[in-house]
């Protein structure tokens, strides 16, 4: 019989698949898309996914055998494997890195280093005291992990001690494969096997005459079973359900178990819950929406992606719901992509009311177990016809995808930055739609320059909604010249008189206010007023942000934190002052100015917990907060009926970034946050504070003129060879030694220029030239749309390989980012 081999995808950043032999015992169960356990390296065990089967033994190395097949059916579909391969090729990473990003952690079995006590070890006299803590623990326990060893010994770095004990023959090491996903179980109660007859049950009831609470509880149990017959047949009742029906019944349950009246069983339950409300019909559309829906369908019939450009509150979501309803009525699935977890709370409630248990939600704030259960449901003919999620949702195993909606398609949060794969979920969704022959709709009030260009050129089908739904007016935007206000000494800290006047009116009218400042923390940095010294991160080339609530300085690049200094680190002066302002400072100052107002803050620091977004949004929605201060999180598609005023505190900071997308991003954020003002019967107001009222982008925001902004900005893109006219590939070269980095990046730049000429810019230091102790150099490559992307990337990769293969530079890291945002 000819020997068979399997190419396995392993979660390692190596540019290849790994071939393993298939033992006869697994010949019938090893198949593409199933997980297997293999040995990788000397001792390490890993789970991988079978990519392909063949009969060709590799020539470079002797194959190892597959150790175990974990699945009876595929966990990753053929379509998914093909998508992984495309993502790896397009975004210049490895299939292993895509695998790590795609599969939920609960489906990735991990090799776990376990330490065992050698029962025959010889005594060693010069061991440190903490070694005995570990030896004693292992004497009382079967094994421990490295993490547990660190806890037992109270050592942050336990590896040197473990290494010494291994070398002394005192402990043994073994790698075992462990799964992080375990089905959720709850305790259920069932009638004890001894009572599975009417006579036995009657006698047991009689024996409880002097235990009224136990008698009450057993009668309730039988009732919840559905009667005596069901109880005798072995009907289960959840323990928590029974205790909820009988006050103070926990002691009685324990006694009934002890007396062998009831028995305990663990029952597997669904983590995802179920919808118990009434399913609402889809709402009727307005005449304008009916026309837009017809135009969208026409675009779908032409086989084109559709760009829905609708102003804020134009009723885009209602169109999405109608399209989803049409799709699932044909037995196909729909994917609704959002850029931020923050947005899922409101839209989940809205979609759930229409689609009930057909809606599945998938994002990183869900527990690992919940994500695994969504994944498994999608692999079968499960209950989910609609998936609502963030960018990672594109990796789910769809059976028959009929519609993809990318809401807020312009948002940079669709782009994954670190780690690889550095993919854009919107662009991957476009590829998925093409491959699956499914419809795709990109929706936004502020299209990306690239998407609007494709729509104008005919690549996409353009549909526009230029008016707000139900006659709601667009907000009135007032521009305040802060430079003039400061000159006349009218500013109260960061608030203009006009903004404070309108906040006062809004609060008097029981209306809500959003204040937008796109910087978290209290202040961007501290500065010595004597010598201008600024505290900087010890690991990064950047000043540290002051967080007043924790009295700490935090690096927003690496997370390094230190307590606030009371004196200058250079001259010793106690005169340290804050420079600039973040959301914490805005929150503190607005509370001083309006002490009766209830103020909340939405930024990364306040929404880290799994329910942080939901609680904050719910509080604001219910009117429990009067003022919401926030970063760009507050700009993204949230709808609040009571918001009548939006304050943009510092428009200049959004326009002065050294980035070719700064004007586009600034316009989008200001237009989006302005759209939060005004709903139903009242026109909203926006106060836009800037030192440059005549800036072209400010003028376009005030007039809500996206087309004018596009025409103004697209000419610059063409002139300076930026997207959509050119593709970009950014290379970040990293090393801990600046001199080695400069030499390697200069060499890489030269070999790239030898083939690509003036398409290569750099190398040069970025504005932040050191992060996490690594010095950085950037190289930007501009590629014509007519050039072959695959050939260009192959050449770039060959240049990278040529650079890092040289002995002095073998530890230099080069990170490729295709289509950087």
Radius of gyration: 31 Å
Question: In order across it, which strands form the biggest sheet?
Answer: 14-15-13-16-17-12-18
Structural class: alpha/beta
Q: Which residues form runs of ≥5 with pLDDT under 50?
A: none
Domain module count: 7
How far the N terminus sits from the C terminus, by CA atoms, comes to 53 Å
CATH top level label of the largest domain: Alpha Beta
Question: What would you note in describing this structure?
Answer:
This protein has 26 helices and 34 strands. It is globular and about 90 Å long. A seven-stranded parallel β-sheet has the order 14-15-13-16-17-12-18, sandwiched between helices. The protein has seven domains: 5-109, 3-Layer(aba) Sandwich (GIY-YIG endonuclease), CATH 3.40.1440; 120-170, no CATH class; 185-268, no CATH class; 287-469, Rossmann fold (3-Layer(aba) Sandwich); 476-519 and 583-716, P-loop containing nucleotide triphosphate hydrolases (Rossmann fold, 3-Layer(aba) Sandwich); 523-580, no CATH class; 726-818, Ribosomal protein S10 (Alpha-Beta Plaits, 2-Layer Sandwich). The model has no long low-confidence stretch (mean pLDDT 90). Helix 7 packs across helix 10 (250-258), helix 22 (662-674) runs parallel beside helix 23 and helix 25 packs antiparallel against helix 26 (789-804).
């Amino acid at each position: 019989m000819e020997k068979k081999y399997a190419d396995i995808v392993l979660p390692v950043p190596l540019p290849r698949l790994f071939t393993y032999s298939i033992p006869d015992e697994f010949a019938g169960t090893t198949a593409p898309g199933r997980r297997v356990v293999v040995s990788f390296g000397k001792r390490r065990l890993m789970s991988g996914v079978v990519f392909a089967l063949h009969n060709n033994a590799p020539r470079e190395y002797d194959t190892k055998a597959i150790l175990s097949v974990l699945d009876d059916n595929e966990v990753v579909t053929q379509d998914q494997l093909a998508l992984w391969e495309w993502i790896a090729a397009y975004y210049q990473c490895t299939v292993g890195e895509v695998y790590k990003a795609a599969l939920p952690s609960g489906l990735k079995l991990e090799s776990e280093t376990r330490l065992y006590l050698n029962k025959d070890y010889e005594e060693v006299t010069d061991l440190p005291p903490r070694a005995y803590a570990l030896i004693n623990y292992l004497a009382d326990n079967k094994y421990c992990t490295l993490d547990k060893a660190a806890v037992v010994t109270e050592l942050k770095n336990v590896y040197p001690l473990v290494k010494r004990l291994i070398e002394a023959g005192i402990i043994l090491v073994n790698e075992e494969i462990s799964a992080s996903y375990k089905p959720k179980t709850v305790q259920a109660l069932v009638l004890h096997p001894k009572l599975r007859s009417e006579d036995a049950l009657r006698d047991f009831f009689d024996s409880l005459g002097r235990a009224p609470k136990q008698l009450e509880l057993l009668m309730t149990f039988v009732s919840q079973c559905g009667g005596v017959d069901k109880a005798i047949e072995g009907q289960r009742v959840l323990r928590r359900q029974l205790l909820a029906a009988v006050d103070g019944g926990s002691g009685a349950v324990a006694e009934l178990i002890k007396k062998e009246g009831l028995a305990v069983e663990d029952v597997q339950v669904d983590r995802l819950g179920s919808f118990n409300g009434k399913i609402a019909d889809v709402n009727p559309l307005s005449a304008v929406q009916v026309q837009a829906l017809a135009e969208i369908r026409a675009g779908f019939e032409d086989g084109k992606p559709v760009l829905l450009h609708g102003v804020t509150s134009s009723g885009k979501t209602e169109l999405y719901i109608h399209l989803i309803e049409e799709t699932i009525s044909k037995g196909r699935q729909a994917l609704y992509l959002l850029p931020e977890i923050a947005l899922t709370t409101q839209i989940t409630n809205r979609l759930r009311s229409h689609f009930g248990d057909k809606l599945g939600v998938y994002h990183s704030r869900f527990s690992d177990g919940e994500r695994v259960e969504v994944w498994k449901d999608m692999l079968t003919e499960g209950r989910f016809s609609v998936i609502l999620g963030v960018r990672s949702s594109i990796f789910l195993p769809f059976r028959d995808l009929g519609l993809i909606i990318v809401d807020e398609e312009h948002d940079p949060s669709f782009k994954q930055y670190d780690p690889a794969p550095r993919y854009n979920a919107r662009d991957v969704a476009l590829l998925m739609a093409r491959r699956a022959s499914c419809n795709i709709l990109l929706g936004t009030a502020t299209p990306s320059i690239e998407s609007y260009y494709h729509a104008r050129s005919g690549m996409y089908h353009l549909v526009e909604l230029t008016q707000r739904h139900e006659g709601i007016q667009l907000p009135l935007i007032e521009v305040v010249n802060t430079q003039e206000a400061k000159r006349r000494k009218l500013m109260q800290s960061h608030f203009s008189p006009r903004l404070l006047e309108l906040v006062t009116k809004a609060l008097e009218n029981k209306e809500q206010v959003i204040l937008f400042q796109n910087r978290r923390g209290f202040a961007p940095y501290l500065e010595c007023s004597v010598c201008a010294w600024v505290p900087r991160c010890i690991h990064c080339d950047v000043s540290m942000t002051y967080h007043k609530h924790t009295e700490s300085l935090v690096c927003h690049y690496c997370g390094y934190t230190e307590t606030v200094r009371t004196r200058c680190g250079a001259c010793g002066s106690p005169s340290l002052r804050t420079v600039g302002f973040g959301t914490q400072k805005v929150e503190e100052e607005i509370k001083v100015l309006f002490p009766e107002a209830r103020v909340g803050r939405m930024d990364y620091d306040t929404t880290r917990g799994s329910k942080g977004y939901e609680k904050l949004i719910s509080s604001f929605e219910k009117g429990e907060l009067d003022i919401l201060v926030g970063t760009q999180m507050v700009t993204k598609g949230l709808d609040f009926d009571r918001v009548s005023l939006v304050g943009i505190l510092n428009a200049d900071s959004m326009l002065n970034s050294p980035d070719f997308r700064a004007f586009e991003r600034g316009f989008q954020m200001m237009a989006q946050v302005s759209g939060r003002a005004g709903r139903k019967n009242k026109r909203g107001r926006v106060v836009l504070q800037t030192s440059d009222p005549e800036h072209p982008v400010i003028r376009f925001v005030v007039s809500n003129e996206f087309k004018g902004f596009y025409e103004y900005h697209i000419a610059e893109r063409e002139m300076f060879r930026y997207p959509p006219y050119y593709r970009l590939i950014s290379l970040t070269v990293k090393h801990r030694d600046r001199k080695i980095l400069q030499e390697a990046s200069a060499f890489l730049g030269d070999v790239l220029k030898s083939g690509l000429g003036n398409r290569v810019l750099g190398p040069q230091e970025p504005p932040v030239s050191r992060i996490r102790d690594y010095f950085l150099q950037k190289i930007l490559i501009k590629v014509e749309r007519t050039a072959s992307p695959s050939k260009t990337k192959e050449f770039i990769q060959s240049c990278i390989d040529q650079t890092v293969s040289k002995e002095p530079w073998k530890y230099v890291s080069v990170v490729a980012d295709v289509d950087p945002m």
